[in-house]
Specification:
CATH topology of the largest domain in chain B: Rossmann fold
Number of strands of chain C: 2
Structural class of chain C: mainly alpha
CATH class of the largest domain in chain C: Mainly Alpha
Strand order of the largest sheet of chain B: 6-7-8-3-9-10
Largest interface: A-C, 92 and 92 residues
CATH architecture of the largest domain in chain C: Orthogonal Bundle
CATH topology of the largest domain in chain C: MetI-like fold
Strand content of chain C: under 5%
Order of helices and strands of chain C: HEEHHHHHHHHHHHH
Number of helices of chain B: 10
CATH superfamily of the largest domain in chain C: MetI-like
CATH superfamily of the largest domain in chain B: P-loop containing nucleotide triphosphate hydrolases
Strand order of the largest sheet of chain C: 1-2
Largest sheet of chain B: 6 strands, mixed
Shape of chain C: globular
Structural class of chain B: alpha+beta
Helix content of chain B: 10-25%
Strand content of chain B: 25-35%
Number of domains of chain B: 2
Oligomer: heterotrimer
CATH architecture of the largest domain in chain B: 3-Layer(aba) Sandwich
Order of helices and strands of chain B: HHEEEHEEEHHHEHEHEEHHEEEEEEEEEE
Radius of gyration of chain B: 25 Å
Largest sheet of chain C: 2 strands, antiparallel
Radius of gyration of chain C: 27 Å
Shape of chain B: globular
């Protein structure tokens, strides 16, 4: 017992080194003076300055943030509905189909989702004339679709752990069904909604492949810009960008996690 | 007898009136041929039941017997497959849970985790459109009644199990429902606390005059609390009666066995007269004499049931001709206030006898492997035909 | 129907909601997924039977109206034949599956001790460790893969350190090899393996292990006879969560792989963006889907099994 645990603890330690070393190296070399990303030449913040003077990156970041915000919000609504239906409704036609469709995007390779949605948009255009042009709207639709799957998973597990008699108690005390949903169900699953939203936001912010397929000339997202730069080799301003993203996300996740902790009692 | 002591012992309706006996009173709740099916499974099977105002009625049964489903139909969470429920003369068929004159106390208590005790209790009043100030005044009084006035601002997860139980009770009583439904109200409490709370529950019920229907699997709890008990099995109500009736005069082997413990001898009628019956049982190797008539046919198969505490165990051979058997002491369980003897009869059947330990030291103490005689009074047992 | 009393509106609304509202609530996510998830596959299927033409959009219509008003259906199965003829596709599928299989195995070997250790930790430490597992997953995937370029390249961190220590004289070529692709895959998909394994292992009743050692089994025997068999649903779920997306992976081979790295996701991408042959790209996607049906079924079964266990 002891022996196997100590082997496991060493392995776990090495695993964490493996997980975090690249991230740490990204951050360190973002403050490197030299353009050679991997040779340390002294401390500098010039890549941050350069980053904030790059209009292409700033524009793409703005597009990505907008897309991520809207997709995450839509995904929360749709994903919560799907989760609610799957957990709370005993039986209905198409329940199996719905639960299959909601979990498939989690593992479906991005290239397939991206290609198939693009071809759908093109066929829709030739049938209904919509969407006339691909761009932010089509990216939002695509991101909403795969983000709602993640939301549904998170909310589903929270809902199925929730005592259903809470809702019945509110109904019993005279609250109408819609009121019950807003008074009881929503506050109880709120932590799941917060983490579902954050998860969707970062997934959308992060997506390269699907966005590359469904985007049009007007909308270039941040991952698309990063990918085109990175393909040509390492560039230190990308390190600076990565550092900012990593720190913001880590801070966000840590805040959310500590805020949610006291409510976890159930 | 003083009415109030009687109330506390039997929990019967104030003044000792028994509307289910006199039958001059309209039932408050009428359940008629109620059935609930989930797919192929019949959870509640053609139940009819009348419950009177201010009763404390217990639905007693094992898990999956349909008692909770019956309760949930009364609350409106499940729609009956067929049959009707009338509460105070009103058909409940098209009344949604939030419009019913009932409230429910849930087995899990179902306290809203994100609301304080005070807000939990006020929730029902506020949904009825009561002003906040008035509502919280009432909440204050209610919390005093359940002795939680100092905990108003706490969240449910900062309370002990017993406190949570009282919040749940307060919340379900605050709207002064005509009917309060309690699903295993004491199930989550430990034994000592449960006994104290039982009497508290009776007191609150009597002081507010609300009709209670309690679902429980605990027969002791049902006996202590209720005016009447309905014993359920496999979706059906098997017997309804006062606790004493259920215990002393069970109508079936199931009820006799389910409530308390019992020794059952299978036998056939050997002598059937108007004022007595004799039963011959190979399990008892004696003839059983019962001092009253039983409606049955000659040579019919039936069962004689007798409670362990109604049996007398001695070293001395009894004098009479009937109603005694002999055997060897197989096992003794000393439980403090009483001892339980397992006695192996000559037929091989094992019976239980309990004896209260009145003396600290007994000269003639019965011990392992003693040859003993077990005897009983003529009217101590019951004859069951099913 | 008899009038009951004043609360009629809400009662009626309640019953309406129970019947119609249900359908309404179900249909919103249902139809969204039908239109934007299921229908696209049918479109892909359709286009995979079309002929590539130089036009906008660049494929032929399956249904055409001939002069006499007869509808003609033209199916070009040649796209699929093309996949069989050109050894590029078959070897790309084969190498994708091979890479996915090997990297799934490595990920499992790395993840299992971690999941085991976390599951056996006291609960306060357990939560911190879990958070540390999940945290990288929240930060940009693209940038984390990018970080490996700096580490693995010829004048990258590893080579610099090894040369500085005098262990090697010549830098290793690691970037743009299959080795780099494996590192990248194991690295990015590690949390997907650890989490389901953890959920499974944390449910394992410790008294089972105690019972086993009480009955005389050593710790290795206990692990092989008790822990490992009971964690098989977690192993299957985690492996499928890694295997399925890796088969179609594009970013990791594109950034870390070299000319010899052949993965079907890249082939599809190039077919679509460089060659603009949409019907062939569609056929590539359809064949990939077919290949993934079995693993997806396995995943669903494993997840259903663990759900039932939890209930």
């Amino acid at each position: 017992m002891k022996k196997s645990l100590s082997f496991a603890s060493v392995a776990t330690f090495l695993g964490f080194v493996f997980l975090y070393a690249p991230i740490v190296s990204l951050i360190i070399f973002s403050f490197n003076k030299s353009k050679l990303v991997t040779v340390w030449a002294g401390f500098s913040t010039k890549w941050y300055v350069k980053l904030f003077q790059d209009p292409q990156i700033l524009a793409a970041a703005w597009v990505s943030l907008k897309v991520a915000f809207i997709s995450a919000s839509l995904a929360i609504v749709l994903g919560t509905l799907a989760a609610y239906v799957l957990v709370r409704f005993r039986r209905f036609v198409g329940k199996n189909l719905l639960s299959g469709m909601i979990s498939a995007p989690l593992v479906m390779p991005d290239v397939i989702i991206g290609l198939s949605l693009l071809l759908l948009f093109i066929s829709m255009k030739s049938f209904f004339g919509w969407p006339a042009e691909r761009g932010m709207v089509t990216i939002i639709i695509a991101h909403t679709t795969f983000c709602m799957a993640y939301v549904a998973v998170v909310v589903q597990s929270r809902l199925s752990n929730m005592d259903q008699s809470l809702e019945e108690a509110a109904l019993d005390l005279g609250a109408k069904p819609v009121r019950v949903f807003f008074d009881i169900t929503l506050p109880v699953i709120a932590p799941a909604l917060v983490s579902g939203w954050l998860l969707s936001f970062t997934l959308s912010l992060d997506d390269l492949v699907i966005a590359s397929f469904v985007t049009g000339p007007g909308a270039t997202t941040l991952p698309i810009v990063i990918f085109s730069k990175v393909r040509l080799g390492v560039s230190p301003d990308i390190n600076a960008l990565a550092t900012i993203i990593i720190l913001v996300v880590a801070a966000g996740v840590l805040i959310a996690a500590t805020k949610m902790k006291p409510k976890k009692g159930h | 007898m003083n009415a109030s002591t009687q109330k506390n012992i039997n929990g019967s309706i104030a003044g000792g009136a028994k509307p289910w006996v006199s039958q001059d009173q309209e039932p408050f709740i009428r359940i008629n041929n109620l059935t609930k099916k989930f797919g192929d499974f019949t959870a509640v099977d053609n139940v009819s039941l009348d419950i009177y105002r201010e009763e404390l009625f217990c639905l007693l049964g094992g898990s999956g017997c349909g008692k909770s489903t019956l309760l949930r139909m009364l609350a409106g969470f499940e729609a009956p497959t067929s049959g009707t429920i009338m509460i105070d003369g009103q058909d409940m068929a098209n009344v949604a849970p939030f419009d019913r004159p009932t409230n429910m106390m849930f087995q899990s208590y179902a306290l809203f985790p994100h609301m304080s005790v005070e807000k939990n209790v006020a929730y029902g009043l506020l949904r009825d459109g009561m002003r906040k100030r008035e509502a919280f005044e009432q909440v204050g009084e209610m919390l005093k009644l359940v002795q939680l006035q100092d905990f108003a601002k706490r969240k449910p997860d900062q309370l002990s199990g017993g406190q949570r139980q009282r919040v749940a009770l307060a919340r379900s009583l605050i709207k002064k429902p005509k009917l309060l439904l309690l699903d295993e109200p004491l199930g989550a409490l430990d034994k000592k606390l449960r006994e104290e709370t039982q009497f508290e529950l009776i007191n609150i019920q009597e002081s507010l005059g609300v009709t209670f229907i309690v679902v429980t699997h605990d027969q002791e709890e049902a006996m202590t609390l209720s005016t009447r008990i309905g014993v359920m099995n496999e979706g059906e109500i098997i017997q309804v009666g006062e606790p004493r009736e259920i215990y002393e005069f069970p109508q079936s082997k199931f009820v006799a066995d389910f409530i308390g413990s019992v020794n059952i001898f299978e036998g056939r009628v050997s002598d059937d007269a108007t004022d007595y019956v004799r039963i011959k049982s190979s399990e008892a190797d004696c003839e059983i004499h019962i001092s009253h008539g039983v409606s049955c046919s000659e040579n019919q198969k039936l069962w004689f049931a007798i409670r362990p505490e109604k049996l007398e165990v001695t070293h001395k051979k009894p004098r009479g001709k009937f109603n005694w058997v002999c055997g060897l002491v197989d096992e003794i369980a000393y439980q403090g206030n009483l001892s339980v003897y397992r006695i192996k009869l000559t037929s091989g059947k094992i019976i239980r006898v309990t004896k209260s330990n009145r003396l600290r030291h007994n000269e003639d103490e019965i011990t392992w492997d003693d040859k003993v005689y077990v005897s009983w009074e003529d009217a101590a047992g019951v004859v069951l035909t099913q | 129907m008899s009038d009951i009393s004043g609360h009629n509106f809400h009662t009626t609304f309640y019953h309406w909601l129970k019947r119609r509202g249900r359908t309404l609530v179900i249909s919103v996510p249902f139809w969204w997924l039908i239109v934007f998830f299921l229908a696209p596959f049918l479109v892909v299927l359709k286009i995979s039977f079309a002929e590539a033409i130089i036009a906008q959009p660049p494929y032929s219509q399956l249904l055409t109206f001939a002069e006499d008003g007869v509808v003609q259906l033209k199916l070009f199965i040649s796209n699929y034949g093309y996949l069989l003829d050109d050894s590029l596709y078959i070897s790309a599928y084969w190498s994708s599956i091979k890479i996915a299989f090997v990297s799934t195995l490595i990920t499992l070997l790395v993840a299992y001790p971690m999941a085991y250790y976390i599951a056996r930790s006291p609960s306060h430490r357990r939560n911190i460790l879990l958070m540390l597992i999940v945290l990288p997953f929240w930060t940009s995937f693209l940038l984390r893969v990018y970080a490996w370029i700096g580490i693995l390249k010829t004048n990258g961190i590893i080579n610099n350190v090894l040369m500085w220590l005098g262990i090697i004289d010549e830098p290793f070529v690691m970037l743009q090899t299959n080795f780099a692709v494996y590192v990248g895959i194991v690295y990015t998909y590690l949390p997907f393996m650890v989490l389901p394994l953890f959920t499974n292992l944390v449910k394992l009743d410790e008294s089972l292990l105690e019972a086993s050692s009480d009955l005389g089994a050593g710790s290795l025997t206990t692990f092989l006879k008790i822990t490992l068999p009971l964690s098989i649903p977690g192993i299957i779920a985690g492996s499928m969560l890694v295997f399925i997306p890796v088969v179609g992976e594009f970013v990791i081979p594109a950034l870390l792989g070299g000319p010899s790295t052949l993965m079907i996701g890249q082939v599809l991408w190039n077919e679509f963006f460089s060659n603009r042959d949409w019907p062939v790209a569609s056929a590539v996607a359809i064949v990939m889907l077919v290949l993934l049906v079995v693993p997806i079924m396995l995943l669903r079964n494993a997840q259903n099994a663990s759900n039932e266990e939890g209930a």
